[in-house]
């Protein structure tokens, strides 16, 4: 096993980003702790056109063939190992990150396992990457981003680049997921970097 990462997927638009990132981590033999909010399941249904009646089946279909080691956690499972600072965790990313989850983290609410684990990452000085997906942004959103940034989180907005000349939706998704993996320190070949041969 190469390392351990926690991934949160919330109800912000852009569920495919989180799905693709988990698939990539598993492909590269990482151990992944996955937390899905209730709203994330709704977005799976609306954006990915998945039947979410059998959630275990959805997880198997999305991630079962990628190797690695996947552990899914209920949003209110405070007994999960990732809820403790004593558990070794190489980094955490919430992709996409809703404004509600951002607010909970910014104010130290720890109202669920996702917020608690993010709080653990901050207090232990470990990598925490938040990928907000909202537009337009109001002052509260911006202030919450600044607040978490000041205490060590990295804000990586879901803004795809175009210098790699994307031709498909997959190209756009892979660019953003690649930038997220860069922030976690995970090697990948999801897009052509500036200055590399196309």
TrEMBL record:
Dimethylallyl phosphate binds at residues 163, 179. InterPro entries: Flavin_trans-like, Flavoprotein, UbiX-like. Keywords: Flavoprotein, FMN, Prenyltransferase, Transferase. Pfam families: Flavoprotein (PF02441). Gene3D superfamilies: Flavin prenyltransferase-like (3.40.50.1950). The keyword Disulfide bond does not apply. Its EC number is 2.5.1.129. It is an enzyme of class 2 (transferase). Residues 6-184 form the Flavoprotein domain. It catalyses: dimethylallyl phosphate + FMNH2 = prenylated FMNH2 + phosphate. FMN binds at residues 11-13, 37, 98-101, 133. One of its GO terms (molecular function) is flavin prenyltransferase activity. The keyword Lipoprotein does not apply. Belongs to the UbiX/PAD1 family. NCBIfam families: PRK06029.1, ubiX_pad. Flavin prenyltransferase that catalyzes the synthesis of the prenylated FMN cofactor (prenyl-FMN) for 4-hydroxy-3-polyprenylbenzoic acid decarboxylase UbiD. The prenyltransferase is metal-independent and links a dimethylallyl moiety from dimethylallyl monophosphate (DMAP) to the flavin N5 and C6 atoms of FMN. HAMAP family: ubiX_pad. PANTHER family: FLAVIN PRENYLTRANSFERASE, FLAVIN PRENYLTRANSFERASE PAD1, MITOCHONDRIAL. This is Flavin prenyltransferase UbiX.
């Amino acid at each position: 096993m190469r390392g351990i990462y926690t991934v949160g997927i919330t109800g912000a638009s852009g569920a495919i980003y989180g799905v693709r990132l988990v698939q990539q981590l598993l492909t590269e033999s990482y151990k992944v702790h996955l937390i899905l909010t209730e709203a994330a399941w709704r977005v799976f249904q609306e954006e990915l056109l998945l039947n979410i009646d059998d959630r275990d089946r959805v997880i198997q279909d999305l991630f079962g063939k990628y190797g690695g080691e996947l552990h899914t956690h209920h949003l209110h499972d405070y007994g999960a190992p990732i809820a403790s600072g004593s558990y070794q965790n190489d980094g955490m990313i919430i992709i996409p990150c809703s404004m509600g989850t951002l607010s909970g983290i910014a104010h130290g609410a720890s109202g669920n396992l996702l917020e608690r684990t993010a709080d653990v990452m901050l207090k232990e000085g470990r990598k925490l990457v938040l990928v907000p997906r909202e537009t337009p942004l109001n002052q509260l959103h911006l202030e919450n981003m600044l607040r978490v940034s000041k205490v060590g989180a990295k804000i990586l907005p879901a803004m795809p680049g175009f210098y790699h000349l994307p031709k498909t939706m997959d190209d756009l998704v892979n660019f953003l997921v690649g930038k997220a993996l860069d922030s976690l320190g995970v090697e990948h070949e999801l897009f052509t970097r500036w200055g590399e041969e196309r």
